[in-house]
Amino acid sequence: MKKVIIQITSGKGPAECCRAVALVYKLMLKQAARQAIKVQPVEIISAEYKDTYKSATFIAEGNELNSFITTWNGTVQWIAESPYRKGHKRKNWFVGVAVFDVKALPVWNDADVRIETCRASGPGGQNVNKVETAVRGTHVATGIQVLAMDSRSQLENKKLCMERLQAKVMARQAEHLVEQQQQQWLNHHALERGNPVKIIREKL
Question: In this predicted structure, what is the pLDDT of residue 132?
Answer without folding.
Answer: 81
